[in-house]
């Protein structure tokens, strides 16, 4: 018997502005890219068609984060699964959809849809103080993980970088500048990269992709006593900065199956969580064949220290954690991609065709 489950937000029937009071209409722009505060709304559709066999199939799908800059209006899912539910019962409060198919299922299909509205995220850095009296929820992001550890190697490295810095914000700026100057995009890296900060620093392997760049940035911040975290998500629409940062057709439709992208943010008292994206500086520099001396890169590295262009959908900031329900293989490095197991074997989530998934996005223009 085919089973169908749905989750519907009570906000679905409301108007956009009624359910998102923190998203304000404004065309004000203070950046060289023409990015405004005007909200952008997207409908994202994730389709899964997993392999059928004599094994139990289990699938964990990352769902969008609800925050001040990104409001989830609706989530729904439909499929021929034997079990499915939404959960956030894990260390990082990461929202995900879990689905299970029994052995010898004739079909393993699932469609997940969500409507999200967001706007450019901008921080007021002038409000930053030098206090380190952090709340417990912020202190969580001072702790090391397997891929972004707090250890002597990284602590000494960060201390040397920031030895002339007087404030938390100055330290963060120095670490950001070092990351942008020294990390570079390596197109041969699979997916978003592994993000092993210690290996990158110790072996001076500064090439990588977004998770590698963001993880080095985050790890050095934590080792300098600044709370920081990676945020995993996917590009969903056209960027005003560069096609390297997201693209869509003239009707706002985009095929985003390979659009996963890892950003970062750090915490400074007074200013709160501050967005940053050193990885996209390295990507635009590489793909547009620019250098650090080019005006566009100078503008971009300045913009991405305290701002995000929100043509990107945030999922979560979990690292080295255990999914719920617990999988056969754990802990999981990150949940930017869907994760699935056939009995105890992990399905290759870096290969959408082999895995059996595709993502699309439609911007509501």
TrEMBL record:
The Transglutaminase-like domain, residue ranges: 202-280
GO terms classed as biological process: proteolysis
Gene3D superfamilies: 3.10.620.30
Protein name, UniProt field: Transglutaminase-like putative cysteine protease
Keywords assigned: Hydrolase, Protease
Organism: Malaciobacter marinus
GO molecular function, one term: peptidase activity
